[in-house]
């Protein structure tokens, strides 16, 4: 059973590389403990099979509890990590977008405003919630609009930056209240 579990652990565990290594280490440790225990029973000519079987059942039970707990913990960590990555992607994507807009802006005053907007976005809270989804989608639309405006109309682009700043502040204030 222990050898079979060493072979099956990478198949059972589907999360990240670190968790597979940990689960595999648990299974390999179990295999080695069982191997050492079995060899010691064999070489010492231990004549009490019920006691030997009981010890192996206890070792197996401990192994299964540790392995199953490890799998659940790893799954929980992977879920939280995926959620964090999704939340982080919003700020990261609009931050990158404003940096791109700054690079294509020719006017120095407008470039400074875009840079200030980028700094404000970059310093915004990463964590998000359902209540701010409206603001986040509006921000993405406004930034798309800003990208087309910076090369065409400086005054409208400046107004758009103010709108974006206002929307971003509303989002950030709502997040501060919710958290």
Structural features, described:
With 179 residues, this protein is mainly alpha-helical. 84% of the residues lie in helices and 0% in strands. The chain is built from 6 helices and no strands. The protein has helices at 2-12, 17-43, 49-104, 108-122, 133-149, 154-178. The longest helix has 56 residues, at 49-104.
List strands and helices in order, with pairings.
Elements: H1 2-12, H2 17-43, H3 49-104, H4 108-122, H5 133-149, H6 154-178
Helix pairs in contact: 1-2, 2-3, 3-4, 3-5, 4-6, 5-6
What does the radius of gyration come to? 29 Å
Number of helices: 6
Shape: rod-shaped
> Could you tell me the mean pLDDT?
84
DSSP strand tally: 0
User: What is the H/E order?
Assistant: HHHHHH
Main sheet?
none
Determine the N-to-C terminus distance.
49 Å
Stretches with pLDDT under 50, minimum 5 residues: none
Class by helix and strand content?
mainly alpha
Query: How much of the polypeptide forms β-strand, as a percent range?
Result: under 5%
Query: Helix content range of the residues, please?
Result: over 70%
């Amino acid at each position: 059973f222990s050898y079979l579990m060493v072979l099956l652990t990478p198949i059972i565990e589907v999360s990240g590389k670190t968790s597979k290594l940990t689960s595999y280490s648990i299974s390999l440790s179990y295999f080695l403990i069982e191997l050492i225990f079995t060899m010691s029973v064999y070489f010492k000519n231990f004549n009490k099979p019920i006691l030997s079987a009981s010890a192996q059942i206890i070792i197996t039970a401990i192994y299964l509890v540790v392995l199953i707990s490890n799998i659940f913990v790893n799954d929980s960590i992977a879920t939280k990590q995926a959620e964090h990555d999704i939340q982080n992607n919003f700020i990261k994507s609009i931050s990158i977008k404003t940096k791109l807009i700054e690079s294509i802006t020719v006017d120095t005053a407008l470039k400074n405003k875009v840079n200030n907007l980028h700094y404000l976005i970059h310093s915004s809270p990463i964590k998000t919630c359902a209540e701010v989804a409206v603001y986040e989608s509006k921000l993405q639309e406004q930034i798309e609009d800003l990208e087309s405006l910076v090369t065409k109309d400086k005054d409208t682009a400046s107004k758009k930056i103010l709108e974006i700043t206002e929307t971003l502040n509303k989002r950030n204030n709502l997040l501060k209240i919710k958290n």
